[in-house]
Amino acid sequence: MNTSPSSSAALPRIAVLATGGTIAGSAADAANTAGYQAGVIGVAQLLAAVPGLDAIAQIHAEQVASVDSKDMTLALWSTLAQRVNELLASDEIDGVVITHGTDTLEETAYLLHLTVKSAKPCVLTAAMRPATALSADGPLNLLNAVTLAANAAAAGQGVLVAFNNRIHCARDVTKVSTYAVDAFQSPEIGALGWVQDGRVEFQRRALRPHTVDAPFTAAAQWPQVEIVTSYAGVSRAAVEALVAAGVDGFVVAGTGNGSIHGAMQQSLAEAAAKGVAVVRASRVGSGHVMHNGAAKDDALGFVSSGTLNPYKARVLLLLALAAGMTDKAGLQDVFDRY
């Protein structure tokens, strides 16, 4: 599917929402791509660094936040989701682009993938190098994100991530490098398509329900869901401390196919018996975690995450618990479906 905006038609109206991150980062030395302060450059300056935007879309810009995305909060998620929904509900806006830090982009993207209630395009982008760096990647990523959001082919595709010329589904994408400009990949099944030099091409579509077909909303009050990791010699201490603190759910970054050390597994089973939700995911990086059925998961009160990594599994568990979905069979259906 290859389309581009018609030059004779009125330009699409795209809202660009800035939240901070490396794309808005600044360093004293142009050769320094690590020692910078994130989120200090405003959205107007970001847009001014991208030539040709006015030939692609009419831009409406807003500064929603100015944070290093490692410090992303659930409250900011709620604010961002609400603003995106308000903008996309308006006849004056045809699509939204969000600039974000790379550290938690995949989590924010998946949260929006399930809580945005519009078929209009919503695209996240970011950068691995600050705006002041030699060969900064932010301007081209932002240009491509606006190009994608302005393109009719992006409608109905759910929330997308435009990064290093590729188009990723928010559910699939993950950060795979600490430094490379191609730091985002969709490891199991690949990108949805690509965007380059004004051309947008999709090779496939996301099949799982999202956006208008998902029942979730960003919460005003979020449950407490924590991630714990299984590894050689792990103890019960973290699980027991979090249960005592009143945690509502756990996601386990297990080994292999979501397997859990015996000591931790026992403590999690005890937590599940007390009504705490427990989801098995894997720390491996790709693949899927199979539901083990009556013999194991059902007996222990566990849910399997399927193809979601631990961080995205936490997003889905947060949304499900916030919606009052606490039944184990119902939770497993949620993870199988979304």
UniProtKB/TrEMBL annotation:
The active site is at T22, T102. Signal peptide: none annotated. One of its GO terms (molecular function) is asparaginase activity. Keywords: Hydrolase. Residues 13-206 form the L-asparaginase N-terminal domain. Residues 224-335 form the Asparaginase/glutaminase C-terminal domain. PROSITE patterns: ASN_GLN_ASE_1 (PS00144), ASN_GLN_ASE_2 (PS00917), ASN_GLN_ASE_3 (PS51732). It holds the Pfam family Asparaginase_C. Its EC number is 3.5.1.1. InterPro entries: AsnASE_II, Asp/glu_Ase-like_sf, Asparaginase/glutaminase-like, Asparaginase/glutaminase_AS1, Asparaginase/glutaminase_AS2, Asparaginase_C, L-asparaginase_C, L-asparaginase_N. It is an enzyme of class 3 (hydrolase). Belongs to the asparaginase 1 family. This is L-asparaginase. It comes from Paraburkholderia hiiakae.
